[in-house]
Amino acid sequence: MPRAECEREYPLRVTSDLVPGADDTADETPPDALTPRRMGATYAIGRLLITPLARLIYRPHIEGKSHVPRTGPVIFASNHLSFIDSIAIPVAAPRPVHFLAKASYFEEPASRWFFTAIGAIPVHRGAGQAALDALDQQRELLEAGSAVALYPEGTRSLDGRLYKGRTGVAFLALQTGAPVVPVGLIGTDKVMPVGAKAPSLKHRITVRFGEPLDLAHHGPASSGKARRLATDEIMSAIHALSGQELANAYNEVPAQNPIDRIKQVLPHERR
Fold first, then answer.
1. Which has more confidence, 45 or 65?
2. β partners of residue 101
3. Is 52 helix (H, G, I), strand (E, B) or coil?
């Protein structure tokens, strides 16, 4: 697919900080707060330190690790219940995993080290050039044989139900040819509910990895029908793993202005 079409079709609706209604103005983040596209020593050392420590403290139930390809590009597509989902997946996965995180998390040295150490890639809010740069990073990581974690629902579920998936994750999978490993997270909303300042040690989480999905049979990334069918297959696999009640709706962020309200009402593909 030509790059121009790719940029037009994929607005990065794949993380809780890049969703409909988000501010299109980029965060005022200093250039030196951004990590390099290739993760270096900080990530390697951080993974060695944080992963065993987190497993010791939170004792996660991990199922289906044998389903995860140990080499080559892979996209982890997960339900999204809590802030710590992006920590739970890298901790449970048998290989390094990268994910998107709000650029403002990298402003302070301590938080910058932590998020870099767990594989986070800083992105600015909005759908401008900063978002396209994040897309380039994801694509480059996959082309280099790395793994990335994304959330098809777009933002966290506040009521625990599983919402319809947006097609951005499927687009990236169809474009790169990377297999998609569905992930079902259970209990992360109890360990760290929305609004909590710190995780709770009273609950355990379950991370379930499903069998890899090859979505190529749905068609090319340029086909809206292929993206929709591939997304539905991904969400069906996630539902089988998480056991959540289906919302049968998109997880829409409340419209911030009249333009956003019109966009939500008009027919359009939910990416």
1. 65
2. 122
3. helix
In a domain, 37, yes or no: no
In a domain, 29, yes or no: no
> How deeply is 38 buried, as exposed, middle or buried, from its count of CB atoms within 10 A (0-12, 13-18, 19+)?
exposed
**CATH number where 237 lies:** 3.40.1130.10
- β-partners of residue 184 are 208
Total tally of structural domains belonging to the chain: 1
Q: Is 160 left (phi over 0), alpha (psi -120 to 50) or beta?
A: left
Within-domain flag for 82:
yes
Q: Angle, nearest 10°, between helix axes 85-92 and 41-58?
A: 100
State which residues form the domain around 116. 3-19+42-265
Residue partners of 86: CB distance under 8 A and separation at least 6 = 99, 101, 118, 120, 149
Handedness of CA 241, 173, 112, 44 (dihedral sign): positive
Alpha-carbon span 246 to 48, nearest angstrom:
37
Note the residue count of the chain: 271
Residue 50 pLDDT class (50, 70, 90 cuts):
confident
Judge whether 30 lies within some domain: no
pLDDT digits (tens, 9 = 90+) for 222-268: 999 999 999 999 999 999 999 999 999 998 765 555 655 555 545 45
Regarding pTM above 0.85, the answer is no
- Given a contact cutoff of 8 angstroms between Cβ atoms, the answer to whether 148 and 142 are in contact is yes
Q: How many CA atoms does the CB half-sphere of 99 hold within 13 Å?
A: 29
